[in-house]
Design brief:
Layout: E1 4-8, H1 15-25, E2 29-31, E3 34-36, E4 50-52, H2 55-64, E5 67-74, E6 77-82, H3 83-91, E7 95-99, H4 102-112, E8 116-122, H5 126-136, H6 141-155, E9 163-166, H7 170-185
Parallel strand pairs: 1-7, 1-8, 2-7, 3-4, 8-9
Antiparallel strand pairs: 3-6, 5-6
Helix pairs in contact: 1-7, 5-6
Bound molecules: guanosine-5'-monophosphate (5GP).
Guanosine-5'-monophosphate binds at residues 11, 34, 38, 69, 71, 73, 79-81, 99-101, 104.
Length: 191
Amino acid sequence: MRKHFLFCGPSGSGKTSVVHYLLAQFPFMRFSVSATTRTKRHNEVDGQDYYFLSVEEFQKKIDEGAFIEWEQVYEGRYYGTLHSEIERIEAMNCSVIFDVDVEGGMTIKKCFGDNLLTVFIRPPSVDDLRQRLIARSTETAESLKKRLDKSVFELGFEKHFDNVIVNSDLEEACKKAKLLVEKFLGTDSSK
Ligand code: 5GP
């Protein structure tokens, strides 16, 4: 069975940056493009960052059994991993890299077992996370509060992951993630 990669961590932990770094390093990896009902950010591309759906379209996919997992990550905002994404990536003979919330991550872990590397990325502190989310300026005061509350909840899931990276320096975190991938694949050049 092919090996796949799961990266979880609170919003603002830097996990998406780490995932993009790994995608650039490992040509055999492909990003699992999730479906979501949240609004598109100005720098995002439909079909590349997410499949942006209306709540009705998302509900239809739930009814059709199209998702491996889906969660209401924030109130009224749904996110889900599509079976068709895994099929699309495996058909290319590539490995899937997932960037999902911790609860979705737990479901994916059950599906792939030992063939999945699970990595939790966390900030050095909640205060640090708050500063990062403010600096990103994608949030209103209300959504910032929701994200911080959710982050505190997510930090409690760390123990369910095989590996934890504390992201106090993005470059260092990326290097550590790369090493974990190489070790998991058995291609660790530092051995
Ligand atoms: P954002 O709105 O910042 O892009 O993502 C918010 C959260 O939703 C992040 O923790 C992200 O990893 C998570 N997320 C993205 N896609 C999925 C998915 O398919 N399923 C689940 N459960 N969470 C997802």
